[in-house]
Amino acid sequence: MKIGVIGGGQLGRMLALAGTPLGMKFVFLDPAQDACAATLGEHIHADYHDHEHLRQLADQVDMVTFEFESVPADTVAFLSQFVPVYPCAESLRIARDRLLEKNLFRSLAIPVAPFAAVDSQEELEQAVASIGLPAVLKTRTLGYDGKGQKVLREPADVAGAFAELGNVPCILEDFVAFSGEVSLIAVRGRDGTSKSYPLVHNTHRDGILRLSIASHQHPLQGLAEQYTASVLAHLDYVGVMAFEFFEIDGGLKANEIAPRVHNSGHWTIEGAECSQFENHLRAITGLPLGSTAKLGESAMINFIGSVPAIADLAAVADCHVHDYGKAFKDGRKVGHATVRSIDSAILQRQLAAISVLMAAGN
Ligand code: AMP
Hints:
By secondary structure, the chain is of the alpha+beta class. The chain is built from 13 helices and 17 strands. The protein has three domains: 2-85, Rossmann fold, CATH 3.40.50; 114-174, ATP-grasp fold, A domain (Dna Ligase, domain 1, 2-Layer Sandwich), CATH 3.30.1490.20; 180-360, D-amino Acid Aminotransferase, Chain A, domain 1, CATH 3.30.470.20. Helix 1 packs across helix 11 (276-285). 44% of the residues are buried. Adenosine monophosphate (AMP) binds at residues 113, 136, 143, 146, 173, 175-176, 181, 204, 207, 244, 255-256.
């Protein structure tokens, strides 16, 4: 089985690491010369709009999947003429646009913070008048890791904010005073069966995920599964989807979905019976889904900008290091580590040991 992947970053790389033992081969299409997945398969070095190379990809693979959601709609439509594409074009169309996404949640009775479409500075001012401050202005498309958004705290922040985000279609959301952020990683097969991993508690800084801790029997697990199941069924979704929620007043408010394997699910490589990467591949190729049960306590810490010395990380008990092989650069996700333990107090000590190495700039 040969799988085409649009994008050749760390998610593509971890898909290949999971699929190779299942006898799968991978072809990545990515414009970056130094795409970090390239060492694990073939690399078609081309732009996402390049029909000649997209056709070349489609001709040599059994199916195509994606490692990011901002794939141009035209790319998906073009590929779909020649080869099965998972998840489907409609899932990508919704997930890449924050307004369509929020409208979908609302139509499925999934709670969301008040929001409004904003296509000009004048509409921004009207939206602020009805939603109030603080609020978050976000570009509808192409935002990730806190990019393409601005928190508006006082009236002075509103002036010129639409231009600051590039005069592009936006959405204004009420600022949610959440008590925590959680995500549910779920997988749905081609036959409609689905499974979910335990809810993950996430900590972000500067809009970038830093730490994910897999929960132990979270009281909101059932509710998160119910909301996610309704989105999966509505989209007739195939593959792994991540659903990010804000935890507030003992309930959940939907933030966003990612139609792909997700950073907050990296712990599943060592921390669950079958990882999110293997389960995504099982789902799209029609294999039975693997168990999503957790193996003890797990947490994942992201390395942003640089990876501490491998020898130091390897000295931390039950620490599993992933260096993506990317050039180190401020603000860039270049690796992660997952720690596992039978006990959450020990897990905290393992995390503290890694934090010390990160702070020391090792
Ligand atoms: P996003 O790209 O929408 O996931 O936003 C990145 C991070 O910004 C989230 O994980 C939150 O920490 C924060 N954030 C986004 N939207 C809101 C909101 N409406 N209220 C409060 N914080 C938010």
